[in-house]
Structure prediction request, 299 residues.
Amino acid sequence: MENKKLGTIYALLAYVLWGVLPLYWKLLEHIGAKEILSYRIVASFLFMIALLLIQKSWSTFFHTCRLLWREKKRAIALIVASLLISVNWFIYIWAVNHNHMVEASLGYYMNPLLNVLLGVVVLKERLYKWQLFSFVLATVGVVLMTIEYGKIPWVALSLACSFALYSLVKKVISVDATIGLTVETMLVTPLALIFIMRSFGQLHDASFSPTTILLLVGAGPATALPLLYFAKGAQHISLTLLGFLQYISPTLSLLLGVFLFHEPFTNAHVYAFSCIWTALLLFSLSSTWEKRRERSLNM
Prediction:
């Protein structure tokens, strides 16, 4: 029971931190999204290296790297994962700093449903009828928003698809969270460093005040800590509880976008969010009902 309570606290911390992270990126909106992403990758890698030193996990890290060197398919999968999470980070930073937080939150509401779809298509997992209806309802919401809004909500779809694919790859390769994030950031750090060196001279000195430099350095722990808290939480609580808690993050982002940054919440958003919220409620409840039914049949 104590482990469950601790796991719930860790998961809550992770989702709350993810929910308020847009406030952090807003402090860096005077810098381009590509620059923020590059510094975020490098700072995250350095933070993870420091964490490995503190945890004395170097032997595990090198052992994992040797295994990946021998197992080419897992290595390629991890490269794909690092590229997917980098794309996801870039789109999210761009969305926050270009006043698309509402649409970004829509993407993360859609994410659990896309996870289910990928599980069915790729992993041949079972899909219950109410879960199928949930996916159809969410699709209707996106279509209605596209028609009403006059364009495809590409920010929401890109965020949902990139993170769902990232989650799928991570599930398939099954690497420890700390080691996995270290390797992922290590793989894209050379690209980030090349971009930083090429663009450094083009940036005005005013862009790099001491405060800005501290914020860029702080992007490392700001990125890594929620992921590590999430991994710790997931170890001790059920997937059902984790599924309910995950809606905290996009809800906080949605509230920040509408009430703090005064982004528009139009009829198109009302239609889309209503469909997706209903779909998520049906999806969560149907998953709980089916698991209880299966447990009762097995007793």
In short: Residues 73 and 173 are 9 Å apart (CA to CA). The longest helix spans residues 267-298. The radius of gyration is 20 Å. The chain is about 85% helix and 0% strand.
